[in-house]
Amino acid sequence: MTTQPVHDGGALIPRPEKTFPALRAALAQVAPSRLAEMATERDTVFTMATQTNSLGPIAMFQLKWATVIEVERFPEVARRLHAAERAAQSLDRDDPAWRAAMDGIREIMDTARAQVADG
After folding, report:
1. What is the H or E stretch that residue 15 is in?
2. pLDDT (tens digit, 9 = 90+) per residue, 49-58?
3. Which of 22, 45, 54, 60 could cross-link with 16 by S-S, CB 3.0 to 4.6 Å?
4. pTM score, two decimals?
5. Domain positions in the chain
6. In Å, how far are 33, 55, 99 from 119, measured between CA atoms?
7. How many other C-beta atoms lie within 10 A of the C-beta of residue 61?
8. pLDDT of residue 2
9. Residue partners of 55: CB distance under 8 A and separation at least 6
10. Other beta carbons within 10 Å of 42
């Protein structure tokens, strides 16, 4: 894992490199309940990459999981995301709070993705 500056709110762990072993180790620390999901997706992605003779699926897998870990590294950000996800799943789509929840999810994920894409 590379050492990155601690952001406001305090990161639980440094931002990992975007290699599979580093991402898996980081996920085990910040969201171990998602390890099986990551493994299943990895198998699917590697099969896709082999079938298409393209590294694109692997790069997208790395970006997705680096983004998930970026959110989970910061407990307050993760709490906000999970609250917004619960709201989006439980509210009627006609409810203005549903749109606010979706906007919150998008904002958090876009910010995290930009952080890992630049880092």
Report:
1. none
2. 999 999 999 9
3. 22
4. 0.87
5. 20-118
6. 25, 20, 30
7. 21
8. 42
9. 49
10. 16
